[in-house]
Write a structure and sequence with these properties.
By secondary structure, this protein is α/β, with parallel strands linked by helices. The protein contains nine helices and ten strands. The chain has a six-stranded mixed beta sheet, with helices on both faces. The chain has a four-stranded antiparallel beta sheet with strand order 2-1-4-5, covered by helices on one side. Helix 3 crosses helix 4 and helix 3 runs parallel beside helix 5. About 3% of the residues have low confidence.
Length: 246
């Protein structure tokens, strides 16, 4: 059995009187999609931000590919293969769709490699490949701000994948999308699985069940249950929480 790509153990985080996370554990295998679900306020986004480095846990340990990143700054986590897309879209609206992905692609290159005038040409194939994968190739020259909400979400996912991470964190990527856009988003994400594992927070349970291999259910900052989609669907503890608070 392959070693886990990501291991979080005993992760706890308090904000004043609020215990947002309490002794949370998470294991993510390479080439797998792992979903974080639970009621509002259960700690899903806080856990994602702790993995990304946006929050520093009070206790616990986070290990990526065998390296302890618990206190590692976000930029160093990116160098070690971690990429993220939070809920709020952060595309550069006044730049073209192409240049948004180009800048994300170049961010993974060392400074001296960017000095040559051929850098853009050398990146063209990679940029256009990502744009094609996310159905944006014909919008390459358009301003990113002219895209629809769903297309901007796809663009930002493409940007997050441009540095070729081994783990991608997504926080509610289908928020505000139409049912058809959500369906397409799942189709667009699945091909990345062999090369990039995924941890995703999502309120659309149908969407997350269709793409994830395993789910971790959080409730009031603690792990309520963890398992395959089928195991979670049969979980009496999970059913009780969703029925009592749904």
């Amino acid at each position: 059995m392959a070693e886990p790509l990501l291991v979080a153990s005993g992760v706890s985080k308090r904000f004043g009187a609020l215990q947002a996370l309490e002794d949370v554990a998470l294991r993510v295998a390479p080439a797998s999609f792992h979903g974080l679900i639970g009621p509002n306020g259960s700690g899903k986004s806080t856990l994602l931000k702790a993995i990304a480095g946006a929050h520093s846990p009070d206790r616990g340990r986070i290990v990526l590919a065998g390296r302890d990143i618990t206190r590692t700054p976000p930029y160093e986590r990116a160098r070690q293969g971690l990429s993220l897309k939070f809920q709020i879209t952060a595309v550069l609206a006044e730049l073209s769709v192409y240049d948004n992905v180009l800048l994300a692609h170049q961010s993974a290159q060392r400074a001296f490699a960017l000095l040559g005038s051929a850098t853009r040409r050398a990146s063209d194939a990679a940029v256009m490949s990502l744009l094609g994968r996310f159905r944006l190739a014909d919008r390459a020259d358009d301003l990113a701000g002219a895209l629809s909400h769903g297309e901007q979400q796809w663009l930002e996912i493409a940007m997050a994948l441009a540095p070729k991470p081994r783990l991608l964190l997504l926080d509610e990527p289908t928020g505000g999308m139409s049912p058809e856009e959500r369906r397409v988003t799942g189709e667009l994400l699945l091909p990345i699985k062999p090369d990039c594992a995924l941890v995703i927070v999502e309120h659309d349970l149908d969407f997350i069940k269709n793409i994830c291999d395993r789910l971790t259910v959080l409730d009031q900052g603690r792990v309520l249950d963890e398992g395959t989609v089928a195991e979670i669907e049969r979980s009496a503890r999970v059913q009780e929480v969703y029925l009592s608070r749904g």
